[in-house]
Amino acid sequence: MAFTRSQILFLLIQLCFSLLPFTFAQSPASGSAEGYTIYGRVKIPSAGTKDYILPGKISNVKVILNGGQRVTYLRPDGYFSFHNVPAGTHLIEVSAIGYFFSPVRVDVSARHHGKIQAALTENRRGLTEFVLEPLKEEQYYEVREPFSILSIVKSPMGLMVGFMLIVVFLMPKLMENMDPEEMRRAQEEMRNQGVPSLASLLPGAARSN
Amino acid sequence: MAMVIRCFLTLLLFLVSTHLTSSLYEDQVGLMDWHQQYIGKVKHALFHTQKTGRKRVLVSTEENVVASLDLRRGEIFWRHVLGTNDVVDGLDIALGKYVITLSSDGSILRAWNLPDGQMKNLKADKDDLILVFGKGCLHAVSSIDGEVLWRQDFAGESIEVGHIIQSTDEIYVAGFIGSSKFYVYGLNAKNGELLKNDHTTLPSDTFGELLSVSSDKFVVLDNMRSKILTIKIKNGKISYNQKPISDLNKDSSGQAVILPSRIPELFALRMNSRVLLIKVTNEGDLVLVDKINNAAGVSDALSISEGQHALAFAQHEDSKIRLLVKDINNWNDDLLKESIIIDNQRGNIDKIFINNYLRTDRSYGFRALIVMEDHSLLLVQQGEIVWSREDGLASVVDVTTSELPVEKEGVSVAKVEQNLFEWLKGHVLKLKGTLMIASPEDVVAIQALRLRSSEKSKMTRDHNGFRKLLIILTRAGKVFALHTGDGRVVWSVLLHTLRKTEVCKDPVGLNIYQWQVPHHHALDENPSILVVGRCGPSLATPAVLSFIDAYNGKELNSMSLTHTVAQVIPLPYTDSTEQRLHLIIDINQHAYLYPRSPEAIDILQREFSNVYWYSVEADDGVIRGHALKGNCIHIIDEYCFDFRDLWSIVFPSETEKIIATVTRKSNEVVHTQAKVMTDYDVMYKYVSKNVLFVANAAPKARGEIGAATPEEAWLVIYIIDTVTGRILHRMTHHGCQGPVHAVFSENWVVYHYFNLRAHRYEMSVVEVYDQSRGDNKDVWKFVLGKHNLTSPISSYYRPEVTTKSQSYFFTHSVKAIEVTSTAKGITSKQLLIGTIGDQVLALDKRFLDPRRTLNPSQAEKEEGIIPLTDSLPIISQTYITHSLKVEGLQGIVTVPAKLESTSLVFAYGVDLFFTQVAPSRTYDSLTEDFSYALLLLTIVALVAAIFVTWVLSERKDLQEKWR
Predict the structure, then answer these.
(1) Best residue of A12, A20, A61, A151 to probe chain B, by most B CBs closer than 10 Å
(2) What is the pLDDT of residues B701-723, one digit of tens each?
(3) How far apart are CA B475 and CA B508, in angstroms?
(4) Is A69–B705 a contact, with Cβ atoms under 8 angstroms apart?
(5) Partner residue facing A93 (CB), from B15, B836, B935
(6) Residue A50 and residue A100 share a domain
(7) Can you tell me the mean pLDDT for B43-65?
């Protein structure tokens, strides 16, 4: 042991002792005898490149054991650990804004001294080493489509204008191809009808005419 | 021309129905939603002001938040919300660049990087030792790598460790066994070897905590709270003195409490509203230093220079607070004396933390961080409040809503848009935005324009019903009203019924109800809110009521009741002033009617036989139904009623334990009872307000995931009619366990639980249909009047019900489930799921439809039935919280807006989040970014085209005629 004097920091807590003075007397002390430690790592691929670099926002990544029983944070290198986990089957979830992680089924074996087997629950894929990677990135916003003539044309307003243009420029062409006799008859009919009013535009009114 | 107009009209309709957005664009953030971040009531605070640059204060709170705040503005630099069981016990700064937190009863030690809050491995050049105390163990942790160097176990001796005293090579651990045996252990600091121990039996039992006055002296009160014991430890040997308090202070009435402030050579003793500062001399004698009247709080001592310690305390003076900072060694001098005016709705001072800074004239200035009774946090400097944070909002107990005042005539509304030019300019900008041709400056301008639209933060009722007041009851007993438009606090009131008094020692707020919702004939009255509280955490403590005006937050009335409160039942009846009748059930089988007016009695007498309710005794596994019987026999009070048990359901306690119960919201509107199937068959929903969903788990599988094996876990769900006690539906999920989160709406219930066999979460839906109405399909029956559609729905007759159910996998753990609610119930529903990642996901109810099949027929597809998949999809665009988190999510509240398509959603936890959702899109209004400019442009273009064609046709006509 190398330390000699130096300043000694301490933190001390009375709370737990005043609350539970005797109950802990029977149970084994906090040591490792009670459970096992789950070590793992979260890797988030940085955009674009192939290699794994952790982005700056890693401090907001939480690792959650059994639906909120325990919560831990990542170290800068992406490692996390849960101590004193009893043997059995557990569930680990990773909560990171912008990424979708599958929950992980973790079997802590009592027979093999805390040997850990992990499998993703979403796709039932087993993990050979306990490294969690996001299944996909999550996009929370709709992406605005870039400006294009097509989008204008496709918009209701564009359709309206387009349709009008067709009426203006193609209809006369169609009219030209019509038989002049028939044309005259149609025009006469129109004249008999008089000026089209808005009421006659409505389908019901038009039928009654 | 006719054609053109017609097509214009149809296209306009088409446009209105299609130009809609389903989810959010990034530039729409903050348009309809707001997000507020809080930290909770501060427990520990540490200032970090030594270095130049950013000055910050590090805090840990009762909501298990560790945060770094900007000392200048009170903003959050970084924040970590630890798990709910991970209570922060200690906070310290190590090596000037790490924050160390100790949590979970001292079993987890974490180090955070000071500037950015990144969790760190401690790295230090110097070889320091961190002593950590946890679960009866003393750990010595190296600050180099966080390695535990040695451990000493005290749990075996059942010692209640109180203090650690350290000298260079030896560490002393002092504590009690029981409440009178005092022990000291001496340890070798290098290897934790036990060197010596001593113990002594004190003359009497002790009260409260041991307080260390200096490194080797302790004080503690005896169990009569009349004597002070001074304990001294020298070289591992214990000696003690005792002195009656009356020797120090003649007027020693009231109960004495030692305050936990750490001050060298001094300690503070509170008696009634007076604080005595007592000095402990080297010989162990006690000397009274000062008496402070009306003292509100005493800070820890602050070492300002070598051997100079300062101490701050505050006194209440009417509406002001006097802050005094004194030098401990030179008591007659005041280092600082300031008067601060603090809003009296903040209550008393709870805690003070002080910090000093060097003024320009080399003298010391002091700033104080004050935690108030309402959990708010204030920074006081030079007699002024520099900033304040409403951190009471981090602990929401209950939420309700209230309407805003109706717009009065004569008040100008039209100040919203400046003039036509400005208006057009704004819309041209928006047009540019939608066409993606806006420059970055334009984008900024658009954003500002949108946020500035003062329409949404006005203090009056709006046509669409988007503007409301969210009335929030917090754990501190303060009620806040937030505006839904921008989330600002409209009013806040610290309820005096929920403040600590001699009678009411430890009041807790329970629920908040809409007491009076005036419409129709009582419109000129303000709506009011009922707050129900209790004088302590135990059910046997008396209840308190407060009535608050919802418009201005004035406490209209308050009552301290003689009876207890076990349950509050808002009845569906109102009196002539639109006050809602409430029954308060106490623990002695009585029901009390409120408001206490003869009119209320009349109304209740009329509906006497129609009042039913149920109670759930989760510990005993019993659900009972009750009905009123008559006035109380033993209590002479005409507002008191006895009730009888109508039915009871006893679950077998060895196989089932109640873990969740959910009922329908009483104000939910159902639009249609009938559901038309694809084959034109009609199913009738079993729509009853008196249904209860109960989820029972196997006793072994009540705990967390991982505690039970699939063989010993099962989940049994029931749907029960609460008037008759009839079980409508029962289902068992084998190999499943809780926690169960459920939501009940219309005729269906959706619940979330854990499947141990698949080791995944599952969600199930159960829909209940009324079979007895099923034969109403025959048209001839309608014609001949033989149908039973007009017969009232009543719990007196027993309809045949059928249920349909289906289960799906769901990826995430869930913290809360809610369902959207709209004004008329026409709009389809979305489930709002608060996930473990503190986000809120909107999931269409169509995904939880028991009629989903693997290969839906063409007709079913047209009806909108989605092909069956084994798991529910998580579409990231449907997170209504988008890229935000509602840290520590606890609950979701939905309120209908007046506009049928829209529902208001409020999610709360440590953070608050509010937004509007439109489950079937906003089919009844234009969206916010509807481009009026483009519409105008199109109309102009069309009109121009009409003229052009008109001219062209005229000319052509002329040519025809000339021909």
Answers:
(1) A12
(2) 887 887 788 888 899 999 999 88
(3) 7
(4) yes
(5) B836
(6) yes
(7) 83
**A96 and A172: one domain?**
no
- The beta strand positions in B771-902, using DSSP E, are 801-810, 814-819, 830-835, 840-844, 891-896
pLDDT at A146 over 90: no
pTM attached to this predicted model: 0.82
Alpha-carbon span B464 to B706, nearest angstrom: 49
> Mean pLDDT of all residues in chain B?
80
Bridge-based pairing of strands B555-564 and B334-341 is: unpaired
Q: How many CB pairs under 8 A join A and B?
A: 281
Residue B578 backbone class (left: φ over 0; alpha: ψ -120 to 50; beta: rest): left
Asked whether the predicted pLDDT for residue A34 surpasses 80, the reply is no
Q: Which of B948, B945, B804 is nearest to B865 (CA)?
A: B804
Question: For chain B, what percent of residues have pLDDT higher than 90?
Answer: 17
Beta strands in B274-344 (DSSP E): 274-280, 286-292, 295-298, 302-305, 308-317, 320-327, 334-341
- What local confidence, expressed as pLDDT, does residue B415 receive? 46
CB contact under 8 A, B704 and A66: yes
> Which residue in chain A is spatially nearest to B933 when comparing CA positions?
A157
Q: Which residue of A has its CA nearest to B872?
A: A122
- Note whether B2 contacts A1, CB cutoff 8 Å: no
By residue range, what is the domain housing residue A171? 144-180
Same domain, A51 and A89: yes
Residues of B in contact with A142 (CB under 8 A): 21-25, 877
Q: Is A148 found in the same domain as A120? A: no
Would residue A150 count as lying in a domain? yes
If asked whether residues A61 and A116 sit together in one domain, one would say yes
Q: Contact at 8 Å (CB) between B844 and B828? A: yes
- The ipTM is 0.78
The whole-angstrom distance between A43's CA and the closest CA on chain B is 16
Contacts of B841 in chain A (CB under 8 A): none
Q: Measure A24 CA to nearest chain B CA, in Å.
A: 6
Mean pLDDT within B898-919: 91
Residue A26 lies in a domain: no
Interface probe for B, chosen from A5, A14, A64 (most Cβ of B below 10 Å), is: A14
Residue-level pLDDT at B894: 93
pLDDT band at B479; cut points 50, 70, 90: very high
Instruction: Assess contact for B303 and B291: CB atoms under 8 A.
Output: no
User: Could you write out the DSSP letters of every residue in B628-676?
Assistant: EEEE-SSS--TTEEEEEEEEEEE--TTT-EEEEEEE--TT-----SEEE
A72 lies in some domain: yes
The answer to whether B188 and B129 have CB atoms below 8 angstroms apart is: no
Q: Which residues of B touch A9 (CB under 8 A)?
A: 92, 94, 100, 128-131, 143
Domain count, chain A: 2
For residue range B246-293, list pLDDT tens digits in order.
Answer: 777 666 666 777 777 777 777 777 777 777 777 777 776 777 777 777
The model's pLDDT over B321-342, given as tens digits with 9 standing for 90+, comes to 888 887 777 777 777 788 888 8
* Interface contact A164-B1, CB threshold 8 A: no
List of chain B residues whose C-beta atoms are within 8 Å of the C-beta of residue A202: none
**From the CA of B158, how many Å to the nearest CA of chain A?**
6
Structural domain includes residue A3:
no
